[in-house]
Write a structure and sequence with these properties.
The complex is a heterodimer of chains A (302) and B (369).
Chain A: H1 2-7, H2 15-21, H3 32-53, H4 63-70, H5 72-103, H6 110-123, H7 125-136, H8 141-148, H9 162-186, H10 191-198, H11 203-231, H12 235-239, H13 250-260, H14 264-289
Helix pairs in contact in A: 3-14, 4-14, 5-9, 5-11, 6-9, 7-9, 9-11, 10-11, 11-14, 13-14
Chain B: H1 2-10, E1 21-31, E2 34-45, E3 49-53, H2 60-68, E4 75-80, E5 83-84, E6 96-98, H3 110-120, H4 125-138, H5 154-166, E7 173-176, H6 184-201, E8 205-209, H7 212-218, E9 221-226, E10 229-234, H8 236-241, H9 246-251, E11 256-266, E12 269-274, E13 277-283, E14 292-297, E15 302-305, E16 312-322, E17 325-332, E18 337-342, E19 351-356, E20 362-365
Parallel strand pairs in B: 3-8, 3-9, 6-7, 7-8, 13-20
Antiparallel strand pairs in B: 1-2, 1-4, 4-5, 9-10, 11-12, 11-14, 12-13, 14-20, 15-19, 16-17, 16-19, 17-18
Classes of the chains: A mainly alpha (302), B alpha+beta (369).
Chain lengths: 302, 369
C-alpha cells in the first residue's frame, strides 16, 4: 500500500489538470482576438483621453477641470444634460410598463404592433429630427391644426428648444425601454398572478404585490440603459434643440472645445466628466436595485 | 362558535361560507372551436375528495381552471348551493389552489407566501401570525419560515404551496397535479400527507392527476375524462372492477386489451375467441354477438395454468422483477402479446398456458366512446 503511494508519488494531479479545474486551458486562447480588439480600440483611447485631460496647456494637471467648473457656460451643461436625460429616461421606462404589461400575453397582431413600436430605432436620430421639425415646427401639422381649430392664437413653440430634444429622446429611447421591459415581463411566470388571484388578490394588488416587485430590478436596469442613451444626446440637441442655449448639453460642450477651440485637454476633461456623472447616476440606481429581490422569477421547480 | 361565525360574516363576499354541495352543470370550454371540455356534470358534496383523472389533453386541467375561475366557461354554470359561481372572478370564489409548479412568490419568504391570502382578506395582524404559525406547524416547516422559496427543496416548496392554500380554510381546495414534479419516494410520502390533511382539516378537495394509482389511493370518487368528455364517475372500487368502457379499462390498468370477435351469449356471459380457444367473459355495455369487441384482462388476472390445462398457449418473451412477483410478457402463437404476473419466475422462451377466470375477462364493444 505504502509502496504504491510512493510510486505514484502521493502524487498531486498533473499541472494541466489542476489548471483545467480552475478553467484555465487552451480554449482561453480563443479570447485573444477579442481582448486585443478591446485593448486597442477601447482601453487605449480611453486611457489616452483621460491622460490628455490632465495635460492642459496652462494651469497644471487639473487646469482643464478647474476651467470647466469656473466657467458657468461649461459648468451648467451638467444640469442641462441631466434635466433632459433624467425625465426622458424616466418617462420612457414608466410609459413602457403599462404597454408591455398589456402586451405580455399572446394575441393576434402582437408582432405587427411590436414592429410598429420598434420602428423608430431603425429610423435614426436625424430622420426623427426632420420628422419632428415638420410635424411640431411653427408651420407644422400640429400647429396648423391647433390654429385652425382655434385652440391656440399663436403657434406653440415645440422645436428648437427643450421640448424638441425631449420629444426626440422619447421617440428614440422608448423602443429600447419597451423591448427591455417586455422581455423582463415575459420572464415572470404568469402562474404567479393566477396564484395571487386564487388567494383573493384583485387586479391592482396582483400587479402591485407580485409583478411589480419582480419587475423592479429590470426597470432599474432599463432606466440605466435609456438614461445613458439620452445622456450622450448630440444630434437631436443640435438639430431640434437650442444648441447654444437651453439644450447646450455636455456633448456639445465637448465638441466645441475640441473642434471650435481646438482645446483637446478641455474636451477630454468634459468627456471624462460626462462619464463620471453617468456613473454617479447609475451607481445610485444600482444601489437602490441591490436592495430589491433579484433572484428567479419562476414560481417553483419547472 | 357563534363569535367565529360573526367575525367571518363581517368580512365581505371574499369569504363565502362552506357549502353543502357544489354543482357543475354542463360545464364546457372550447379553445378556438375545439372543445377541450364538454358537458361536465358533477356534484361535489362537502368533505369529498374528488380526483379528475385522464391522459394529458383530456380536459382535466381545463375543468380545474374553470372551477377556479382562471378560465371563463364557454357554456354551462357552476353553483355553490344556491349561489352562482361561474360569473365571479377567481379572487372572489374563496377556493384554494395548489399549482403544478407550486407558483410560490419567489420574492417573498415562506411566512409571507402563506400570509398573502390572509392579508388580501384584511385579516387582523395578530390572527395572521397565529394562523400562519399553525399552517407552518401543519406542514412541518417551522424552521424554514424565514427562507425564500428558492432555498427550499421541491418537497418543501410543495408543502408551502399546500399551506398557502389551506391557511385560508377554503371551502374547496383545487390541486393541479401537485406531485408530478417530485421524485418517486417523496411522491408517496406527500400523497399520504395530502390525504391526512384532507381528513384532519375536513377539506373538500378536487385533485387533478394522470396517475391512476394516485387517484385510486387518494379519492373518494373519481371522474375519468377522455378528449374532454366524462367517461365514468365512480368510487375507486367501481372503476377498478367495473370500468364503463375499454378506454377507462385501459386507464385503470387493463393492459391486455385484445381486439377479438364476440361469440354467442351464454346466460350472463359472452364468449370470445382468442387464438382458436373459446373463452367466456363478462359483457360490459352490451356488445352484440358476432361484432368486433375488445377483451380486457388485467395482468394480475391472467394465470399460468398447469401444463396441459386448457388455455391459450404462449411463449415467454420478457420477464421483469417486481418484488413479490414478476411481470411477464408472453406472445401467443398467433402473435398477440399478453401481459401477466407470475409468482414463480419463468425463463425466457418457456412455453406456458395462459388461463383466465370468466368474470375477470371483460368484453367491451369496440366502438365505445
Amino acid at each position: 500500500m505504502t509502496a504504491i503511494n510512493a510510486a505514484t508519488g502521493g502524487a498531486r494531479p498533473a499541472l494541466r489538470h489542476r489548471l483545467a479545474e480552475r478553467g484555465i486551458d487552451r480554449q482561453l486562447l480563443l479570447l485573444i482576438p477579442a481582448a486585443l480588439f478591446v485593448l486597442i480600440l477601447f482601453i487605449y483611447p480611453f486611457l489616452y483621453g483621460v491622460g490628455l485631460s490632465f495635460q492642459p496647456t496652462e494651469g497644471g494637471a487639473l487646469g482643464a477641470y478647474r476651467e470647466f467648473f469656473t466657467d458657468a457656460y461649461l459648468r451648467d451643461t451638467i444640469l442641462t444634460t441631466l434635466q433632459l436625460s433624467l425625465p426622458a429616461a424616466l418617462l420612457n421606462v414608466l410609459a413602457s410598463v403599462p404597454i408591455a404589461y398589456r402586451m405580455r400575453g399572446r394575441f393576434r397582431g402582437k408582432r405587427l404592433l411590436t414592429t410598429l413600436l420598434v420602428v423608430p430605432i431603425t429610423l435614426g436620430t436625424v430622420l426623427t429630427a426632420q420628422g419632428l421639425l415638420n410635424f411640431l415646427g411653427p408651420t407644422g401639422w400640429f400647429n396648423r391644426t391647433l390654429l385652425s381649430s382655434g385652440l391656440a392664437d399663436a403657434p406653440v413653440r415645440l422645436t428648437n428648444n427643450y421640448w424638441g430634444v425631449f420629444f426626440s429622446l422619447v421617440i428614440t429611447g422608448f423602443p429600447f425601454a419597451f423591448l427591455l421591459v417586455l422581455s423582463y415581463l415575459s420572464g415572470i411566470d404568469p402562474t404567479l398572478e393566477r396564484a395571487a388571484a386564487t388567494l383573493g388578490a384583485g387586479r391592482w394588488q396582483r400587479f402591485r404585490r407580485i409583478t411589480l416587485p419582480l419587475l423592479a430590478p429590470g426597470l432599474a436596469t432599463t432606466f440605466c440603459l435609456t438614461f445613458v442613451l439620452a445622456f450622450s444626446v448630440f444630434p437631436s440637441a443640435v438639430l431640434v434643440g437650442d444648441p447654444s442655449g437651453t439644450t447646450r448639453v455636455m456633448s456639445i460642450a465637448a465638441y466645441d472645445a475640441a473642434y471650435v477651440r481646438y482645446d483637446y485637454p478641455l474636451a477630454s476633461a468634459v468627456a471624462v466628466l460626462m462619464g463620471v456623472v453617468e456613473l454617479l447616476v447609475i451607481a445610485a440606481v444600482l444601489g437602490w436595485r441591490a436592495l430589491l429581490y433579484t433572484g428567479s422569477t419562476a414560481g417553483g421547480k419547472g | 362558535m357563534t363569535a367565529a361565525a360573526t367575525s367571518r360574516a363581517s368580512t365581505p363576499a371574499t369569504r363565502p361560507g362552506h357549502f353543502e354541495t357544489l354543482r357543475l352543470d354542463g360545464v364546457s370550454r372550447s379553445f378556438g372551436g375545439q372543445a377541450a371540455l364538454a358537458d361536465l356534470d358533477l356534484t361535489i358534496r362537502r368533505g369529498e375528495f374528488i380526483a379528475l383523472l385522464g391522459p394529458s389533453g383530456c380536459g382535466k386541467s381545463t375543468a380545474l381552471n374553470c372551477l377556479a375561475g382562471l378560465l371563463p366557461l364557454t357554456r354551462g354554470s357552476i353553483w355553490q348551493d344556491e349561489t352562482r359561481l361561474d360569473v365571479l372572478p377567481p379572487e372572489r370564489r374563496g377556493f384554494g389552489m395548489v399549482f403544478q409548479n407550486y407558483a410560490l412568490f419567489p420574492h417573498l419568504p415562506v411566512r409571507k407566501n402563506i400570509a398573502f391570502g390572509l392579508q388580501m382578506r384584511r385579516v387582523p395582524r395578530a390572527e395572521i401570525r397565529r394562523r400562519v404559525d399553525e399552517a407552518l406547524r401543519l406542514v412541518h416547516l417551522e424552521e424554514h419560515a424565514g427562507k425564500l422559496p428558492g432555498q427550499l427543496s421541491g418537497g418543501q416548496q410543495q408543502r408551502v404551496a399546500i399551506a398557502r392554500a389551506v391557511v385560508l380554510e377554503p371551502s374547496l381546495v383545487l390541486m393541479d397535479e401537485p406531485l408530478s414534479n417530485l421524485d418517486a419516494k417523496l411522491r408517496l410520502e406527500m400523497r399520504t400527507e395530502i390525504r391526512r390533511l384532507h381528513q384532519s382539516l375536513g377539506l373538500t378537495t378536487v385533485y387533478v392527476t394522470h396517475d391512476q394509482e394516485e387517484a385510486l389511493s387518494l379519492a373518494d370518487r373519481l371522474v375519468v375524462l377522455r378528449a374532454g368528455r366524462v367517461q365514468q364517475i365512480g368510487t375507486p372500487e367501481e372503476l377498478h372492477t367495473e370500468p364503463a368502457n375499454w378506454h377507462v379499462a385501459d386507464f385503470m390498468g387493463y393492459r391486455n386489451l385484445l381486439p377479438v370477435r364476440a361469440g354467442a351469449r351464454q346466460g350472463a356471459g359472452i364468449t370470445v375467441e382468442i387464438e382458436g380457444q373459446e373463452l367466456t367473459g363478462t359483457p360490459v355495455g352490451d356488445p352484440a354477438p358476432g361484432s368486433e369487441v375488445i377483451a380486457g384482462i388485467r395482468p394480475e388476472d391472467l394465470r399460468i395454468g398447469p401444463a396441459g390445462s386448457t388455455g391459450v398457449p404462449a411463449t415467454v418473451e420478457v420477464v421483469e422483477y417486481q418484488g413479490r412477483e414478476v411481470a411477464v410478457e408472453a406472445r401467443t402463437d398467433g402473435g398477440i402479446p399478453l401481459n401477466l404476473r407470475a409468482v414463480d419466475r419463468p425463463a425466457v422462451g418457456d412455453r406456458i398456458t395462459v388461463t383466465v377466470e370468466p368474470r375477470r375477462l371483460l368484453v367491451f364493444p369496440a366502438d365505445a366512446r
